[in-house]
Amino acid sequence: MPFYARIRRSRLLIALGATVTTALAVTVTLALTVTTYDHTSPRAARNKASGSVAAGAVDCRKAKCVALTFDGGPSPTTPRLLDILKRDHLHATFFLQGKGHIAKYPEIIRRIADEGHEIGNHTWNHEVLTRINAADARRELTRTQDAIERITGTKPVLMRPPQGRTNRQVAKICRELGLAQVLWSVTAKDYETTDSTLITQRVLDQTHRDGIILLHDLHKGTVPAVPGIIKALEERGYTIVTVSQLLAPAEPRPGMVYRP
């Protein structure tokens, strides 16, 4: 082989090797980015669990269930929402926020707990936990945990990360604090509209069995939409439950991310 041909061949092999190495590095990086925490679905968690649900409780292995959740409260609109849920004999999961909410409306929180609803942690300042250091992320959660416990006597076992952003560091902190992470499958984006009809339609268009609905009771159009959402879901055969009821007989596992 001529000298210059050998040089060209060597350069080609080096370039090819570099390309393969780069591709492998990108693949590994993407894998680490995508698989950054343990996660499962409510259905998968139920299927792996042994035992049975409590006597008289909804069994979502048999019923067509959907969980109804509310973020960012409590707020002045929450009592009206509680009235609606009480009238319809339903329970929901409330992910409560600290600053401007928990300390300001302790009586509403007591009512949420007294009426049998589930309470979760939605951080103190609504900081995106993946953008702050571990100490600050822990403080966002522990401060909220402690405030809720002072009011209700019980610490939450569920949390919802702001914007649904989580990673291995957040999962580790949640595991240490005894908190399972709960995402969602249905969002009405009620923070960008006051149109209750649109909110209702968005929920109905996205809802499926074993889904988790995310709403914000503090926004103007949301609570007026709830009666119509409940009526339409029940007409479609859904049983509305809390997150823990959706998981049962599985127990929420600290650190785990539950997403439908």
Distance between the termini: 61 Å
Mean pLDDT: 90
Global morphology = globular
Structural class, judged by helices and strands? alpha/beta
Residue runs with pLDDT of under 50 for 5 or more positions:
18-35
Give the fraction of residues assigned to helices: 40-55%
Please give the largest β-sheet: 6 strands, parallel
* Count of separate DSSP helical elements: 10
Share in β-strands: 5-15%
Order of helices and strands: HEHEHEHHEHEHEEHEHEHE
Would you count the extended β strands for me? 10
Radius of gyration: 23 Å
Q: Tags for this entry?
A:
single chain; 260 residues; alpha/beta; four-stranded parallel β-sheet; 14% strand; globular
Question: Can you walk me through this structure?
Answer:
With 260 residues, the chain is α/β, with parallel strands linked by helices. The chain is 47% helix and 14% strand. Helix 3 runs parallel beside helix 9.
Short description:
It contains ten helices and ten strands. It is α/β, with parallel strands linked by helices and 260 residues long.
Write the layout of secondary structure elements.
Layout: H1 3-34, E1 39-40, H2 42-48, E2 65-73, H3 78-87, E3 93-96, H4 98-102, H5 106-114, E4 118-121, H6 134-152, E5 158-159, H7 168-177, E6 180-182, E7 186-187, H8 196-206, E8 211-215, H9 222-235, E9 239-241, H10 243-247, E10 257-258
Parallel strand pairs: 1-10, 2-3, 2-8, 2-9, 3-4, 5-6, 6-10, 7-8
